[in-house]
Each structure stands twice: as C-alpha cells, then as structure tokens.
Amino acid sequence: MAATYDLTPNLIPYLDRHLVFPLLEFLSMRKIYPEIDLLKAKYELLAKTNMVDFISVLYKTIHDTEEVPSEFTTKRNEVLQNLENLQTEAQKVLDLIENPEVIAALRQDKLQNLNFLKEKYGLTDEMINSLYQFGQFQYNCGNYEGASDMLYHFRVLSTDHELNISALWGKLASDILDSNWEVALEEVHKLKEIIDQRNFASPLHQLQQRTWFIHWSIFVFFNHPKGRDNIIDLFLSPSYINTIQTACPWILRYLTTAIVTNKRRKNILKDLVKIIQQESYEYKDPITEFIESLYVKFDFEGAQRKLKECEEVLNNDFFLVATLQEFVENARHLISETYCRIHLKIDISGLSQTLNLDQEAGEKWIVNLIRDTRVDAKIDFKENTVIMNQNHTSIYQQVIERTKGLSFRSQVLASTIEKREAHQNSNVAETTE
C-alpha cells in the first residue's frame, strides 16, 4: 500500500531538483522501492548539478566499482575553477558593502543607495549580478547557506525585477534545504504577495506559479511551529483552493492533515468535508476517505479502518511522518465526539472497540473527552454506558450555523462548475477537430 499512496511522483514535477533529493533519501530509508532504482534516480537527478563528488559516489555504488569516467575529473576541475572565478568577482562587491564607511552612508531607499554606490565607488550592474551568479553556482554545488547569503545581498542591491523574483525562489529553496524555517516562512509570505499582485501574461501562467508555490510551501508549513495555521489559511483562500482543485488535488492530503492535527481549527471541518466530496472523483486516499467515512457516511467502523490505513500513509509521507501520533490522537477524538453527538446512550465497550482501545484505555479516553469538550453527559460505570443529555438548538442558531461559510462554499462550487465546463468545452473542441 505504501507505494500506491506515495505522492512523490505527483510532487516532483513542481519541485527544483535539489528539493526532490530529500524526498528520495526518505524513500530509501522507508524501503518502499528497490534501492538500486532509487540510487539511479538520485544519480539522474543530480547529474546536471555541480555536486561532482557526491555524483561520483553514486556512480561507484550503482556500478560496484572504484573507478569513475575521466569526464568526472574534468568536470570537477571546471567546477573548482568557475567557483574560484565567481568568488573573486563577488568578493569585490562584498568588500564594498561590508566597508564600515559604506554601511554608515547607506539609507533605506534602495535606488538612492545604488546611485550612491555607482557614483562614488564605481559599482556596476554586472558586479551586482555576480552575486546572483555566485549564489546560483553555490546552490548547484550544494552549499545552500552560502547561496542564501549571496542571494540575500543580491536582492538588497539589485533593481532588476525579474532577477529579484528568481533570487527569491532560489533563496527560499536554499533556506528550506538549510532548515532555516523562520527565514523561509518570511520568504513564503513575500513570494505569495508577489504572485498574487503580479500582472501575468495569462491566467495559466499565474496558475502555474501558484502550483509551484504550493508545493514548495509544504516544506516550510510542516516544519515551522506556526506552519499548520498558515497552511490552512493559505490553502483555503479562494485563489489557492481553486488552484488545488484545478491543478493539484493531491494537496488535499496535506490540507486535511493540517486541519485534523490542529484542534483550534475544527470549525473548518465543514468546509473541508465539502471540498473532499467535490474532489473525490479526482483524488482520494485513506486520509481524505477517513473524513468522508466519518462526516458524510457516519460509518464509524469504516472510519476506524481508514484510520489504520492513515497510519501507514503518514508513516511513509516525507512531510507528514512527524504528525503521525498527533493525527491518530486527534482522529480518535473526532470519532468519539461525532459518535457521542449522534447517540443518546453509548456502550463504553463498543466505543472502545471502535477506537481500537482496550476497556481501561477506552474508559479513560471517554472521561477525558467529556471533560475536554464539555459534552453534556454522565457516565454510568455500573451499566458501563455514557448517557448523553440532548440540547436542542434554537432555530436562530441553526440558521446562523447553516449560513456560516456560505460565501466560501459558493466560491468553491463555482470554481468546480467552471472547471467541469472547461473540461467539457475542451472535449467538444477535440471532437470538432
């Protein structure tokens, strides 16, 4: 089942090759695929980079030899020579901007600083671009900290809009690979603002940019302490849920996991359920099916079976493996809460079995549930049951509850209709041709 629900093939087309490498390393540890296949995939992935020494090790392992082709040595020498040349050029700019006198003279206005440096110190656009080139080269060598530093200095000085955006993507990738999550989150916000505000040549281009951005952002959101709040806010915003539904429905796995593991955002579950239902014909996995079993079918045994499958899926997902225990705990909480709300009298043994817990653990779980959620209920330990007290919701509360999120759900429905119409139109066009 691990390979069946592995999303790596879906993710790779939207990631830089350096970002793909940690995913392949993870798959090697999990032994989901034959190791020789993964070694070959790593070799092909990195063959076009400047990581010559590591590529040589991969070659030796794959071919079971201590010898490597002569072009490896030639390429290594070329990389070292280019590195030295680029470092020399970049160092001229670094020496200038690290000069205490220059630092003291700089102001907040980038254009003013640039004119000052050009007039007084002879700084040129070519010299500034050498920082970009050196940062890009270091990135290709696997020196992500150095790359991030160079690209930061480039963005401080450069007024080239396109290169600035490219440098921001490169810096985000560098900080992700260097596990600098605080800075990476800031860059995610900057990049989102650029993508949302930029005038693209076509809606398709903006859709592609958002799709790439969504995939890169997952690295940050599942590693930064505040990431799961951010991923919910971003992915449920109209523009991005539309992108997910149109271009990458598999991202629903990550949105669902973020919501299930975030107790403070349970109010979003109704919106999530509707999205999962709408997209079930395009994408489903045990994580989305768990939500569907619990909140659409009210199939508690089915939800428990899906939860068992979720454990394996989470354990073999690079981004979600760290959420495994929290997901299972919160999922059981959701099962219990939903079960209690639709039953007046609950057999503790039966509920414990549904939660895959023994009798003692089940009793503790239910006591904690009633305490934590303030459910109006009492436990009869003699009868080994929980008696739920019914609270009738006023008609006004029902109306308010049903209208919550109506605007959001309408937008999601409209985007789904548009997508289906576009699909039908494309089919008609193909038929007429």
From TrEMBL:
Q: What are the PCI domain coordinates in residue numbering? A: 220-393
GO BP: formation of cytoplasmic translation initiation complex
Source domain of life: Eukaryota
Please give the chief subcellular localization of this protein: cytoplasm
Where it sits in the cell: the answer is: Cytoplasm
Keyword match Protein biosynthesis = yes
MF terms (GO), sorted A to Z: translation initiation factor activity
* Keywords in alphabetical order: Cytoplasm, Initiation factor, Protein biosynthesis
List the record's Gene Ontology CC terms alphabetically: eukaryotic 43S preinitiation complex; eukaryotic 48S preinitiation complex; eukaryotic translation initiation factor 3 complex, eIF3e
**Which parts pass through the membrane?**
none
| Keyword Cell wall biogenesis/degradation set for record | no
Q: Which family does it belong to?
A: Belongs to the eIF-3 subunit E family.
Alphabetized PANTHER family for the sequence: EUKARYOTIC TRANSLATION INITIATION FACTOR 3 SUBUNIT E
The protein's role, per its UniProt record = Component of the eukaryotic translation initiation factor 3 (eIF-3) complex, which is involved in protein synthesis of a specialized repertoire of mRNAs and, together with other initiation factors, stimulates binding of mRNA and methionyl-tRNAi to the 40S ribosome. The eIF-3 complex specifically targets and initiates translation of a subset of mRNAs involved in cell proliferation.
Q: How does it assemble?
A: Component of the eukaryotic translation initiation factor 3 (eIF-3) complex.
This one is known as: Eukaryotic translation initiation factor 3 subunit E
Species for this entry: Funneliformis geosporum
Q: According to the entry, what is the taxonomic lineage of the organism?
A: Eukaryota, Fungi, Fungi incertae sedis, Mucoromycota, Glomeromycotina
| Gene name linked to the record | INT6
